[in-house]
Write a structure and sequence with these properties.
This protein has 331 residues and is of the alpha/beta class. The protein contains 8 helices and 15 strands. Strand 1 and strand 2 form a beta hairpin. Helix 1 packs across helix 8, helix 2 crosses helix 3 and helix 2 packs across helix 7. The chain binds NADPH dihydro-nicotinamide-adenine-dinucleotide phosphate. The site of NADPH dihydro-nicotinamide-adenine-dinucleotide phosphate has 32 residues, from helix 1, helix 2 and helix 3.
C-alpha cells in the first residue's frame, strides 16, 4: 500500500516561529488495530488553532497536522470492529494533538477512537456539529441529568456566537429553555435570536469587578465556554440550587471565586470533557443529535470552506472573531 494525500502542515522553522502550508504526505502501512479513514469533513475548533500556532500545551512536536475531528469512510481496516466502507466519526482522544489530525485527506487512528455514524446523521451534518456540538450537547445532557428544568428559570450561555456556544444556544432553546446569550459581538444579536436566544446581553453585563462573593440571583443554569471572571460572575449570579457546566477557557483558565456560591446557594459546578469521555457517552450524544436533538436551520450555523481556505480562519478563531462553526469539506 502506498497512499499519497494532501494535508495541512505546521512547521517550526526556527524556535517559536511556525509556518503553515499544505503538503503532500504518503502512508505505507496501517498498524494493527488501526483504521485508515478517507476524511470527508473536518471542522475548525479552538484547540486546532492553538495547535496550528505552536501551542506546546496542545502539540509537543512539530511538524504536525492539526484537526481534532473528522467524519469519513474507512479505506482500510486492521481491526475487527470495522470494515472497509464503514462510515465513522472520530473526535478527540489524541487526534490532532500529537497524532496527525484531520486537516488531511486521510487519518490513520486506533479503531477504538471511532464510532459508527448514526443512521440519521450524514457525515456532513456530524461535522457541522463536530467536537463543539458534541461538547455543547454533553453539557446540556449533564445539566439535565442534574435536574436542570426549564421551569426553574433562565439559562445563560457564554461565548454564545462561538462553536460550542452556538450549538448550546440552539439546543437549549429547542429543549424549551429560556436562553440568555452573552456575547462580545454586538452585531450578532439577530444571529443569536435566530438560534433561539430569548435575550442577548453584552459581556460587560457580567463584568463585575467588585469582588463580592455573591451577586443578585438570576440564572437557573449556566453553560460556560470562556472561564475567567465571566464564569466567576455567572456562578455568583446563579440561583439557589442552580447548575453550571464549565467546558472552555476562551477568555481565561482562571476562576476568581470564593466557595460561597457552593455552600450558601448550593450551586453545582459540572466539568465537561469531550476529549476522553467514553465511547458510550459519545454514541448516546450523537444519537440525540441525529434524532430528537437535531437542530433546525443548520444552514445558519456554519461556513463551509476547503483546506486551501483554512489558514485565515485559524487566526480569526483565536481572536474570537468567528460566528458559528467552520466546516472543512475535504472532497
Ligand atoms: P470559538 O472560538 O468558536 O468560540 C469561543 C467564543 O468565546 C468566541 O466566539 C467569543 O464569543 C468568546 N470569547 C472569545 N474570547 C473571549 C474573551 N477574551 N472573553 C470573553 N469571551 C470570549 O471556540 P469553541 O466554541 O470551539 O470553544 C470554546 C471553548 O471550549 C474553548 O476554550 C475550547 O478550548 C473549549 N472546548 C472544550 C472542550 C472540552 O472537551 N471541554 C471541547 C471543545 C471546546 P462571543 O464573541 O459571542 O462572546
Amino acid at each position: 500500500m502506498n497512499i499519497a494525500y494532501r494535508a495541512f502542515w505546521v512547521e517550526e522553522s526556527e524556535p517559536g516561529q511556525f509556518n503553515r502550508s499544505i503538503t503532500q504526505k504518503t502512508l505505507n502501512e496501517v498498524p494493527d488495530d488501526h483504521i485508515l479513514v478517507r476524511v470527508a469533513y473536518s471542522s475548525l475548533n479552538y484547540k486546532d488553532a492553538l495547535s496550528a500556532t505552536g501551542n506546546k500545551g496542545v502539540t509537543r512536536h512539530y511538524p504536525h497536522t492539526p484537526g481534532v475531528d473528522a467524519s469519513g469512510t474507512i479505506a482500510e481496516s486492521r481491526s475487527e470492529s470495522f470494515q472497509k466502507g464503514d462510515e465513522v466519526i472520530v473526535t478527540g482522544f489524541d487526534l490532532g494533538m500529537n497524532t496527525p489530525g484531520a486537516f488531511s485527506e486521510y487519518i490513520c487512528v486506533p479503531a477504538s477512537w471511532a464510532i459508527s455514524r448514526p443512521e440519521n446523521l450524514p457525515l456532513k451534518v456530524s461535522m457541522i456539529y463536530g467536537t463543539a456540538g458534541l461538547t455543547a450537547a454533553l453539557c446540556v445532557q449533564k445539566m439535565i441529568h442534574h435536574d436542570l428544568e426549564s421551569k426553574k428559570g433562565e439559562v445563560l450561555v457564554t461565548g454564545a456566537t462561538g462553536g460550542v456556544g452556538s450549538v448550546a444556544v440552539g439546543l437549549l432553546a429547542k429543549l424549551g429553555f429560556d436562553v440568555v446569550a452573552v456575547t462580545g459581538k454586538t452585531d450578532q444579536v439577530e444571529y443569536l435570536k435566530q438560534l433561539g436566544a430569548k435575550d442577548v446581553i453584552g459581556r460587560s453585563e457580567l463584568d463585575d469587578s467588585s469582588s463580592k462573593p455573591l451577586l443578585k440571583s438570576r440564572w437557573a443554569g449556566v453553560l460556560d465556554t470562556v472561564g475567567g471572571s465571566i464564569l466567576a460572575n455567572a456562578i455568583k449570579s446563579t440561583q439557589y440550587g442552580g447548575i453550571v457546566a464549565a467546558c472552555g477557557n476562551a477568555a481565561s483558565q482562571d476562576l476568581p471565586l470564593t466557595v460561597f456560591p457552593f455552600i450558601l446557594r448550593g450551586v453545582s459546578l459540572l466539568g465537561i470533557d469531550s476529549v476522553n469521555c467514553s465511547l458510550m457517552d459519545r454514541m448516546i450524544i450523537w444519537e440525540h443529535l441525529a434524532n430528537e436533538w437535531a437542530l433546525p436551520d443548520l444552514e445558519k450555523l456554519y461556513t463551509e470552506i476547503t483546506l486551501e481556505q483554512l489558514n485565515p480562519f485559524i487566526d480569526k478563531i483565536l481572536k474570537g472573531e468567528i460566528t458559528g462553526r467552520v466546516l472543512i469539506n475535504m472532497n
